[in-house]
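Thread: quick sanity check before group meeting

JM: Hey all, I'm pulling together slides for Thursday and realized we never actually wrote out the predicted structure for the chain we discussed last week. Dropping the sequence here so it's in one place. If anyone has concerns about the input, flag it before I start.
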Amino acid sequence: MTPLQRVSKSPFGRMPDGTAVDGYAIRNGRGTSMHVITYGGIITSLKTADRAGHFADIVLGYDNLEGYLKATPYFGAIVGRYANRIARGRFTLDGRTYQLPINNPPNSLHGGTRGLDKVVWSATPFESNTSGGVVLTYTSPDGDQGYPGKLDVRVTYTLDDHDKLTVEYVATTDKATPVNLAQHSYFNLAGDVDKDILGHVLQLDASRYTPVDSTLIPTGELAPVAGTPFDFRKPTAIGARIAQKHEQLRFGGGYDHNYVLDKSDSALRHAGRVVEPSSGRTLDILTDQPGIQFYSGNFLDGSITGKKGRVYKHRYGFCLETQHFPDSPNHPAFPSTILKPGERFQSRTVFVFGTDK
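JM (edit): ok, ran it. Output follows.
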């Protein structure tokens, strides 16, 4: 019997300056497969089976590099140095104020105008008897996008035979600096996107969330979800309450909020579960991070034509980004995101794919 080739490499185009971008196809023994490119560490496709055993792509994206080089809403990318928003693009650390690019006025979003989603990473594939994947590395120089310190980042994607995709992050620095890394895939578990995600049933292990102001910056409050449209402690359709009159839904244009995950005895905790009733596909997320950003695709408006010529209309994808809280450098009461020399930022998130019979 021929051993399964779990990882294969192929070209995925060139950057405007001629830098080559490679793609890595990764598959497991159950037929689940994914494709990752070195530009932005982007997951360009992720194919899982429905309850009838039919495979389809469950993430939004483009067929070629040109699509990702255009204005893209971070489809499938690794975002950082600081995932999510920093108010006015400004923070003070050790008595010095740092100014970041304002790329989401009036704030800085996902690391600035050229964050980790817009650089070419180095890649090393690997295989074992039960898994395959790729290790991505990148060094962000001191002062990059206004951030202090040289930041060495390593992200490892591992797809195993239990249909688990593990994303591991490691970072070190030579100066104190804020670090918040996240994976920004847009999911639609119906597969081969042709309808919105409002019928997906979501459950989040979070009793509190961080309300925001009109610019989507946290107010500092950790508010209870009980009695609000933000309560997903029990499985609830994403669209069940999204149209309710609520100030926070108005600010976000729907859900675009960080949830405070309930504590557990384990470092790796269950964060949430999504079920798509028509296909039976399920997604469970486990993480060691304190928060998860739930985004309901509010800014998708039909202006993007993605893979196979599909138009991504309003709320055709959702994101569940495991993370530290937005704007933490400006909120001393939030869990700290400051990485210091000699320390090691380490984090792990696991996406578990399955079906609900």
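AS: nice. Residues 302 and 313 are 4 Å apart (CA to CA). The chain has one domain: 7-197+295-355.
JM: adding both to the slides.
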